[in-house]
Amino acid sequence: MTVVADKSILLVEDEAILAMFEKNQLEQGGYLVTHVSNGENAIHLIIREEKPFDLILMDIDLGRGLDGTQTATEILNYKEIPVVFLSSHTEREIVKKTETITSYGYVVKNSGFTVLDASIKMAFKLFEANELTKSKKEHLETVLHSIGDGVIATDSDGKVIRMNPIAEKLTGWTHDEAVGHNVSEVFQIVNVKTRSLVENPVDIVLRTNSIVGLANHTVLLSKDGSEYQISDSGSPIKDLNGDTRGVVLVFRDITAEYNVQSHIAKQANMLNNVLDAVIGTDFNHRINYWNKAAEKIYLWKAEEVMGKSVLEILKTDYLQLTSDQVIGKVNMEGSFIGEVIQFAKDGNIRNIEINQVLLNDESDLPIGYITVGRDISERLNAMKQIRESEAKLTQIIESAMDAIISIDQSKKIILFNGAAEKMFGYESLDMIGQSLDRLIPLDFRNQHDSHIDSFSKTGVSRRAMGALGQIRGLRSNGEEFPIEASISQISVKGEKLFTVILRDVSVRNLAESKIQKLLHEKENILKEILHRVKNNMSSIFTLLTLQARSQTETATQTILYEAAGRVKSMIVLYDKLYHSATDNTVSLQDYFPAIFEEIVSIFPKNVQLKMDILQEPIELNAKLLSSLGIILNEMITNSMKHAFNDITNAQICLKIFREDKKLYLEYSDNGAGIPESISMEHSPGFGLQLIGMLVDQIEGKISIVRNPIPKFLLELSL
After folding, report:
1. With 0-12 CB in 10 A as exposed, 13-18 as middle and 19+ as buried, what is 191?
2. Sites of the modification 4-aspartylphosphate (predicted)?
3. Is the pLDDT at 350 greater than 70, yes or no?
4. Cys-Cys link to 150, which of 167, 177, 309, 331 (CB 3.0-4.6 A)?
């Protein structure tokens, strides 16, 4: 209940009698009343003299000068004070006019003291309530401006109605600019990785009518182009009935925090990507960090070991020190570096090279230990294998039948194996550090040095030395001997090393000389045999030819000429073999023209020969050529017997050509042609039968082609 004692009222009334009456009633009601008759005096008291009044009773009609509404407006622009209007007017427009100025009350004159008193008390209550609300609002404004988070309030349509300075700073919008805009224009957020727009939290709150939080990795795009990593939450603003009237959005800049977390994450990621195990513990040796490499090396997952004692998880043998001695060394000196043996989860041994150090905080005070471990098990195994390999290589080098000598760039001997000792007659210990020239005859030393220098510049890793790979060596007793040599080079730490492998070929050269002599003798014997066979067959050919010429019967004569032709093909072959530079092979280009002309010359009829033989040299063995010679003889004989009875300009054609790996012999004449009844499969004559058998023997194919001209086509695989 409002207490009226000591409440002072300024009564503004131009009618003196009415003013006296109202003043008397109010004072009887317990109010302190001051009366003025016009607006100017009211303004003077309140603004000029700053008289303190708790309320103004303002008549609307004040005669000449300012009316009540004008007076109230000017006073209220200077000071917040409750004004209750008194008037005899009840018109709606007049009442409405006063409501635009103040809303503390409107009393119709002569309504009685009870109504007036109630209106005054109600005005006091409203004023107290407004003052309280104003105080709370100012408090909230102060809080809103003081908090470190950005705050944006919206109405139920998502339009901005309030922003604090932090929100202004982060969004780049001033409060006045933002009010009335949709919050999605002012508060623009994207995903930091995809750069795609993120749904505005205000929209989510209005849709779900619940509190929402912002997803991680969200960036606020400021109006000035700046970007801020933020976290936020949106909450609905509800009235007394529980209906949502708007949303309050609270967000804060976590860019620095995000950068720190990102830096920590990068460091953790780096530690997870190193190949060495990194283990962190406190002073009680409880594990608080265990990276991926530790998981891989020791087979323990991080979640299995966190909080447990590293002394229990990793059984460690420090080889020369105890665990307590190592810890003491770390505490006193700050670190320990050494090789240890540790056991993985499966019980298998790990050879580890560790570096254990004290871990300090930002104040440089020790807070625990960091141990970096590198698994050197494979390295130790590799070193063991290298030692074993070196031992095997030494055994191989020492057991080699060939001399192996290695020299450095200055041509000083650094390796001299057992075979080299036997070959040159020197002990290995005596030769290490000696010049290679000691093993080379004086006449060859300059040439040998030039060869090594030239080989060094080429960069080639291996090649033979000397013409045909043979040079000469010098034994300890002064004896020179032929050697076959190859040289290789490697680079070790920028220095070239050369290794020469030598083989004494004295005995082999003698053996090769004997073999060459025997081969020469064999070649002479073979040529003599071929010459004799050729002469004997020439005698047989002569006898057959003479016998044929002495015959009067044509059939007998033809048989003898055919036999002579077959022998002639062999004579030509043996003659070619006799003059051939190779064993048992003759060039196709040499053999066929010769045998072609020799066989045709046997017969008395004059025949023109036309040959088309490929230019590419082809060597065929004697057995194949012998069969081909007889086949050609049978074809020529067949032409001479049957083809040219009524032909004066007789012609025989031979074409030899090649396609891929096939050799083709095409034989034809311009005679009477091959009767349709004759085929390779059904031939009554001995000649065609012989040709068929010989073609099968040499695994060839023969066919009779009748168009456009009749011919034999023989196909051979090379």
Report:
1. middle
2. 59
3. yes
4. 167
